[in-house]
Amino acid sequence: MKKKNHTLIFVVGIVAIVILINLLSLKGFLRFDLTRDHKFTLSQASVDTVKNLNDTMTVSAYFTDNLPPPYAQHARYVRDLLEEYVAKSNGHFAFQFMDPAAAETEEDKAKRKETRRDIFGRPIREPTSVETELSELGLQPVEIRVIEDDQQQTKRAYMGIVIRYQEKHEVIPVVQNLSDLEKDMTSLMRKLTRVKEPKLGLIKDVAGPHIEKVSQALKQNMAVDAIDLKTEGEIPDDIDALLIVGSGEHFVETSAQKIDRFLRKGKSGAFLLDRYHIDPRSFQVQPIGPRSKTHEIFDLLKDYGLAIDSSLVADASCASLNMQENRGGFVFSLPVKYPFVPELMNLSFESPITKGLTGVILPFVSKLDIAQKAGLEVDILARSSKVSWLEKEPLDLNPRRNWGEANIEPDGPYPLLAQARGTLPEKEEKASEGDKAVPSRLVVMGSSAFMWDEFLSPANQVLALNIVDFMLADTALLEMRSREFNEAPLSADLSDAMRQAVKYGN
User: Fold this and answer.
1) Which residue from 97, 98, 96, 83 is spatially nearest to 46, judged by alpha carbons?
2) pTM
3) Residue 255, SS3?
4) Burial (0-12, 13-18, 19+ Cβ within 10 Å), 191
5) 3-state class of 417 per DSSP?
6) Are the C-beta atoms of 420 and 444 separated by less than 8 Å?
7) Residue 261 confidence (pLDDT) above 70
8) Given the DSSP bridges, would you call strands 318-327 and 330-342 parallel, antiparallel or unpaired?
9) Any idea which of 122-136, 360-374, 406-420 has the lowest mean pLDDT?
10) What is the number of H-type helices and E-type strands within the chain?
11) Which range has the top average pLDDT, 124-128, 251-255, 304-308?
12) Which of 1, 116, 297, 410 gives 20 to 30 Å between its CA and that of 100?
């Protein structure tokens, strides 16, 4: 009898503990991350962001219900990630997870039934009030393939996120890449909560090639101030980063020193410098102005260990130009391979500047000569292919050049794009002992032509924007890792009993 009482007390105790745990879980969120590299744990930058919120931030996740795999996994991961933010936010972070169809009114449901067909026979209808509201926010449904009634069909579904803070909002239109979702979320949160709009200083030759498309894209997210080094005393302190573009005609004797003093304050700079004036229509090479002035900026980069060579890189892995051919009175447009526009295949996947990019072209680019300097960590982000070579003066850039007659011995690859982080090397006249070195960020490329309106592909524009984002982003965001969701297969050396235990334990 006593044994039965003990058993009953034990069972009741276990039930009471389970009930207590469930009651406590209603007030909080607890989850253990047992993955080897903590894939499901917020990075410190994310924790700091939500902990330091001064007002409530609200996230609305719009996901259509009953999504098929793999999209159902996206919805589950987003919900779990948002729960993690809530748990670390000190009560200043909230979210709602909703299916847009569930918010439709009776009038909206009636609109869904009022379909007609366009000239191609496709069914169309008026958007519902919910669809209109989401469209104004920047969310559009995407087409996904599903299996219904034993048939493959196309379904319109929402998989987007809206982040609201005070009077502002930011949008992730479609959740596609889970590995970068936390980084994207935290980046947008920081953008919403920052007090001051970032300011980019643009140093370029007014008479140089046009980069209007890139400039307009940059102005959508930041202030862009044109800086004339010929008239400016010092570069203003309210500039957060410099974008230095062109072949040096806009430099004077003191330009390099002004830029150096600016960078040593812990600021960032991207040097996208051309060794030659090249007309993108005639392909004529024009001489550069007074070398004593122009080359000071190249000498400055050499002092940093990031020299730009005076030759041009030619690459058999290249883009084509459409050239007009007149044959028998008829004009044809024919694609012609042009080695002076290398198409990049060797891009780093470790840097936020180049990760995931394809289709980037770098017209009229010079190679970089890297010399590692103490305190400055340099990473090469892009290289030419193995079938690349160097062309030296006098340069023949004629697209119709007979390459079969050229004596070419490819000896690539060559470094074409580099990023650097750390303290800049000291000059010969060393700073006083009281001065403290402040880390800076640099990006260097021997060409600005990839940003010219004539060569600006979608991939090139993304590269330009990424370079600026790298310079303006805070260190914590740059150090956030991407989360790779790879399979973790069981070891073949496990016994059958252990393998079954792990499977059923999970």
Assistant:
1) 83
2) 0.68
3) helix
4) middle
5) strand
6) yes
7) yes
8) antiparallel
9) 122-136
10) 12, 24
11) 304-308
12) 116
Q: Which residues contact 489 (CB under 8 A, 6 or more apart)?
A: none
- SS3 (DSSP) at 190: helix
Contact yes or no for 62/134 (Cβ under 8 A):
yes
Taking Cα atoms as reference points, which of 439, 418, 450 lies closest to residue 268?
Answer: 439
Q: Is the distance from CB of 385 to CB of 316 less than 8 angstroms? A: yes
Q: Are 109 and 100 in contact (CB under 8 A)?
A: no
How far CA 368 is from CA of 361, 377, 460, 469, in Å, comes to: 16, 15, 19, 22
As a whole number of angstroms, the distance between CA 337 and CA 439 comes to 42
Residue 426 pLDDT > 70, yes or no? yes
Which residue type is seen at 18?
A: V
Amino acid at 173: P
CA 296 to each of CA 37, 53, 114, 159, 304: distance values in angstroms, whole numbers, following the listed order: 47, 45, 69, 52, 13
DSSP character string of 131-157: HHHHHHHT---EEEEEEETTEEEEEEE
CB 454 within 8 A of CB 209: yes
Residue 13, SS3 per DSSP: helix
3 state SS of 7: helix
Highest mean pLDDT among 10-14, 32-36, 74-78: 74-78
Q: What is the C-alpha to C-alpha distance for residues 445 and 270, in angstroms, rounded to an integer?
A: 8
pLDDT in tens, 271-289: 999 988 888 888 888 766 5
Compute the distance between CA of residue 26 and CA of residue 346 in angstroms, rounded to an integer.
50
Q: Which residue has the higher pLDDT, 463 or 18?
A: 463
State the residue for tokens 């958007």.
Answer: 127
Structure tokens at 453: 């309106």
User: Can you tell me the distance from the alpha carbon of 451 to that of 471, in angstroms, rounded to the nearest whole number?
Assistant: 17
Q: How much is the pLDDT for 43?
A: 83
Residue 208 has pLDDT above 90, yes or no: no
CA–CA gap between residue 492 and residue 497 (Å, rounded): 12
- Structure-block tokens of residue 484: 């790779």
- The single-letter code of the amino acid at 390 is L
Parallel, antiparallel or unpaired: strands 223-226 and 199-204: parallel
Residue labelled with tokens 């519902």: 128
Which region holds residue 384: left if phi is over 0, alpha if psi is between -120 and 50, else beta?
A: beta
Q: Which residues pair with 318 in a beta bridge?
A: 342
Between CA 241 and CA 266 the distance in angstroms is: 10
CA dist 330 to 36, 327, 334, 438, Å?
Answer: 66, 5, 12, 63
Token reading at 428: 């010969």
And the tokens for 276? Answer: 């030659």
Q: What is the mean pLDDT of the chain?
A: 83
CA separation, residue 247 to residues 209, 273, 277, 419 (Å): 10, 6, 7, 20
